């Protein structure tokens, strides 16, 4: 008994000793130093803090994963981290990496050739940055690479041949870049090369002469580039594992090759904007893809009329896009019940497609830019899974059905676009709509208060109508949900009610109205605000110094109002680290600007690639919505839309009553493009 008691005491002592002993760090010193060097190669200031500290095990740092036995850093996942700079060569000091994910990190410049030294890499994701130039030849040395994701950059040049050396690739995504030229052909009768040179690199072994011959490849996306010519896949093998092929929005031309039928495992096929030279297309070839789930054949430039009945036998089909083609269909047509997305924009349709009434799994519908007249049928709102509806650019007269059906159906509706299509009266709307686009119609009178009955409105765009009266105070119903409010170019009057300002607001545009009073100080609570435009109104207020407290503000347009007084104050540092457009012209601002006035305007001081746009997340997808604003450049008025916000960095303080010297700190704004 004593023996067992002593054993228990001894065991307890050992446990206490283990817990009392300091934990041993897994991280190796050389790996920690490599991470520190990588971090130190980026620029930091008071607005951008370092993401790693030195008082913990580096294997526990955000985005860092180590091998549990060796302590080597094997994974670095810093996606959506604001690194903001050039990818340094020091990344290769982390030589044991098998996974490197730096997507959405505001990186620019060229991809360094030293990246080819990371010989253990199996997964590389540099997507969503601003990398430019050609891919370095050394990437052909990454022979263990399986997944290569380089989409949404500015990469250029011909197709990077060195990728053909990477025989283990399973996914290649080069979409949304600036590549051009023809794809490498598999050259009839040849199965591959045994040796080839690129630049100063030599690669040996059996090398396929086409991406389509890489045996393990399952996903290939080259969408939105400038690749051209015929596809060159005449000898493609039926043993190909390719299940995802996206070639849309390029400059491919000629007939769609029948050899594509050998890709028997295809589940996603995108041939949008294929230039057939006004030739004929045999749409029956797509019937052979029994596993096809998504088919995108928009804008094929063909004389063929697309008979929708061709697709009724594709029982696995979920997404179908035939926009920009001439269609033929009957009211008795039955498409696969599995369809969740249908896009028939710009198809010269003159009546609402009745066959949609039976598509009970339909999530997303786009029939915009057609010639459909009459009322939107009541049965549309009864489709149980409907999430997104775009009926813009038609000639509808209203919504059919009772208020009860319209307002209380469509329980899952996220987005409704009725732009460019309606006249008065303003239609009743489904209450569950979150993103409402109703610009460029002929609506008049007051903004209908029925909008305030919506339950979770996130985006309201009613620009370019003839609305009058005041902005409804009942918009305070959305004070926890509204992120985009655009009422530009109407005839609205009165003040901007503070009740309408949601703390979640990201974009406010009430320009070109007849609004008066002061700029509501409740905007100070909108810490996500990026875009503020109140131009061409009658707002009478002092300069809103408190705007400097909004950390994400990129665009301020106060032009053509009745603002007055100084735009500087003793002891107030007017620092706008993210600002790229500052337009306070045509007001009554006065006073002298201190020499350091522009010292904290970081985004205009050095190269950044933040890029202003509004991304709306709905249904698991991102919808990009662009704002617009008027600028004066060399005495000419111009409208800035879309990608212009990524390019222009402007200051306009003209037609005020400022005096004294131009502040010396203007010389710090090295990225400034327009100064008025």
Automatic annotation (TrEMBL):
SUPFAM superfamilies: L domain-like. Residues 1-20 form the signal peptide. InterPro entries: Leu-rich_rpt, Leu-rich_rpt_typical-subtyp, LRR_dom_sf, LRR_N_plant-typ, RLP23-like. Residues 29-67 form the Leucine-rich repeat-containing N-terminal plant-type domain. It comes from the Eukaryota. GO terms for cellular component: plasma membrane. Keywords: Cell membrane, Glycoprotein, Leucine-rich repeat, Membrane, Receptor, Repeat, Signal, Transmembrane, Transmembrane helix. Belongs to the RLP family. It is a single-pass type I membrane protein. This is Leucine-rich repeat-containing N-terminal plant-type domain-containing protein. The keyword Repeat applies. The keyword Cell membrane applies. PROSITE patterns: LRR (PS51450). Transmembrane segments: none annotated. It is found in: Cell membrane.
């Amino acid at each position: 008994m004593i023996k067992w008691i002593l054993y228990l005491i001894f065991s307890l002592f050992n446990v206490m000793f283990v817990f009392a002993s300091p934990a041993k760090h897994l991280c190796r010193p050389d790996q920690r130093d490599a991470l520190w060097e990588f971090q130190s190669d980026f620029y930091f200031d008071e607005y951008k803090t370092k993401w790693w500290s030195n008082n913990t095990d580096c294997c526990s740092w955000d985005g860092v994963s180590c091998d549990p036995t060796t302590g080597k850093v094997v994974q670095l996942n810093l996606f959506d981290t604001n690194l903001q700079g050039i990818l340094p060569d020091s990344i290769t000091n982390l030589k044991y990496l098998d996974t490197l994910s730096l997507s959405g990190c505001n990186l620019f410049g060229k991809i360094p050739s030293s990246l080819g030294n990371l010989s253990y890499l199996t997964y590389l994701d540099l997507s969503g940055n601003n990398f430019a130039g050609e891919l370095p030849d050394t990437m052909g040395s990454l022979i263990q690479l399986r997944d290569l994701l380089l989409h949404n950059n500015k990469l250029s040049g011909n197709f990077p041949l060195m990728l053909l050396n990477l025989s283990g690739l399973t996914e290649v995504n080069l979409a949304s870049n600036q590549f051009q030229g023809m794809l490498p052909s598999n050259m009839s009768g040849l199965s591959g090369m045994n040796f080839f040179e690129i630049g100063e690199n030599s690669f040996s072994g059996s090398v396929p002469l086409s991406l389509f011959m890489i045996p393990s490849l399952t996903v290939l996306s080259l969408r939105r580039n400038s690749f051209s010519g015929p596809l060159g896949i005449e000898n493609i093998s039926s043993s190909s594992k390719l299940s995802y092929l996206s070639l849309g929005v390029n400059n491919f031309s000629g007939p769609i090759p029948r050899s594509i039928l050998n890709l028997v495992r295809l589940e996603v096929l995108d041939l949008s904007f294929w230039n057939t030279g006004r030739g004929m297309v045999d749409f029956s070839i797509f019937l052979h893809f029994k596993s096809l789930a998504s088919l995108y054949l928009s804008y094929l430039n063909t004389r063929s009329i697309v008979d929708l009945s061709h697709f009724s036998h594709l029982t696995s089909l979920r997404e179908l896009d035939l926009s920009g083609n001439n269609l033929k269909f009957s009211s008795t047509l039955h498409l696969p019940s599995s369809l969740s997305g249908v896009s028939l924009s710009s198809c010269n349709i003159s009546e609402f497609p009745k066959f949609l009434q039976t598509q009970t799994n339909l999530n997303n519908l786009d029939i915009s830019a057609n010639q459909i007249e009459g009322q939107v049928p009541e049965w549309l709102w009864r489709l149980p899974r409907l999430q997104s509806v775009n009926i813009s650019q038609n000639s509808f007269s209203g919504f059919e059905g009772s208020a009860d059906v319209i307002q209380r159906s469509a329980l899952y509706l996220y987005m409704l676009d009725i732009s460019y299509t309606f006249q008065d009266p303003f239609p009743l709307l489904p209450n569950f709509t979150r993103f409402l686009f109703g610009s460029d119609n002929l609506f008049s009178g007051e903004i209908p208060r029925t909008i305030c009955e919506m339950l979770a409105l996130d985006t309201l765009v009613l620009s370019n109508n003839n609305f009058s009266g005041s902005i409804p105070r009942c918009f305070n119903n959305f004070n926890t949900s509204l992120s985009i409010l655009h009422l530009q170019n109407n005839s609205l009057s009165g003040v901007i009610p503070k009740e309408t300002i949601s703390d979640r607001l990201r974009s406010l545009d009430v320009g070109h109205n007849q609004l008066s009073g002061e700029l509501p100080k409740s905007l100070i609570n909108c810490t996500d605000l990026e875009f503020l435009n109140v131009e061409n109104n009658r707002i009478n207020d002092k300069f809103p110094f408190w705007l400097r407290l909004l950390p994400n503000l990129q665009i301020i347009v106060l032009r053509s109002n009745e603002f007055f007084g100084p735009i500087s104050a003793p002891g107030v540092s007017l620092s706008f680290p993210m600002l790229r457009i500052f337009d306070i012209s045509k007001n009554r601002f006065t006073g002298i600007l201190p020499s350091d006035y522009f010292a904290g305007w970081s985004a205009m001081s050095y190269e950044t690639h933040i890029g202003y746009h509004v991304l709306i997340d709905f249904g698991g997808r991102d919808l990009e919505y662009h704002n617009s604003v008027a600028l004066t450049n060399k005495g000419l008025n111009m409208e800035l839309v879309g990608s212009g916000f990524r390019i222009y960095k402007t200051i306009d303080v003209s037609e005020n009553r400022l005096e004294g010297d131009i502040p010396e700190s203007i010389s710090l704004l090295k990225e400034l493009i327009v100064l008025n």
